[in-house]
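User: Design a sequence. Structure:
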């Protein structure tokens, strides 16, 4: 499963910055409740954190508006008809942000990160089948201006993926 597989397309900002203000313990507790169960009611959260339901609702809205968190429905790609997932390492030249911007426009690409190391960019793709993956790689990704080479890592089995890493 991946962020791309939400019921509603929720595109995260490309230029995310660390949250400028420190989160207090109550906001962290609210986030942890929602990481455990994104459908938990504001009333149940309020009871747990010692605030009113309205105060929890306002804090959640502020956390959403400031891109500290998002609430999405994460689906199983196999159940949705997407039988092929892969990570693709991309070596590029020139302005990396231009290549990254083009990749973010592709609906099959659900994750784009600029990296240091062997690859300049790493992306995750979700495709219906191997034919769609081949077409995406050969006709759309490798032909982008600035792309020098790609290396594809096809998923054989998803061993672990979770979104409840807490707030530390």
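Assistant: Done.
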């Amino acid at each position: 499963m991946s962020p791309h597989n939400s019921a509603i397309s929720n595109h995260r900002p490309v230029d995310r910055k660390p949250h400028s203000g420190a989160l207090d313990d109550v906001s962290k507790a609210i986030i942890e409740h929602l990481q455990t169960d994104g459908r938990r009611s504001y009333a149940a959260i309020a009871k747990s954190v010692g605030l009113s339901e309205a105060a929890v609702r306002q804090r959640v809205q502020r956390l959403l508006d400031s891109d500290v968190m998002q609430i999405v429905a994460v689906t199983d790609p196999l159940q949705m008809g997407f039988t092929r997932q892969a990570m693709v390492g991309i070596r590029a030249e020139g302005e990396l942000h231009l290549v990254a911007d083009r990749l973010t426009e592709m609906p099959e690409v659900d994750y784009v990160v600029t990296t240091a190391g062997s690859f300049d960019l790493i992306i995750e793709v979700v495709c219906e089948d191997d034919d769609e993956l081949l077409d995406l790689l050969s006709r759309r990704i490798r032909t982008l201006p600035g792309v020098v080479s790609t290396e594809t890592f096809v998923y054989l089995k998803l061993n672990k993926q979770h979104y409840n890493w807490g707030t530390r």
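The chain has a mean pLDDT of 88. The longest strand covers residues 84-92.
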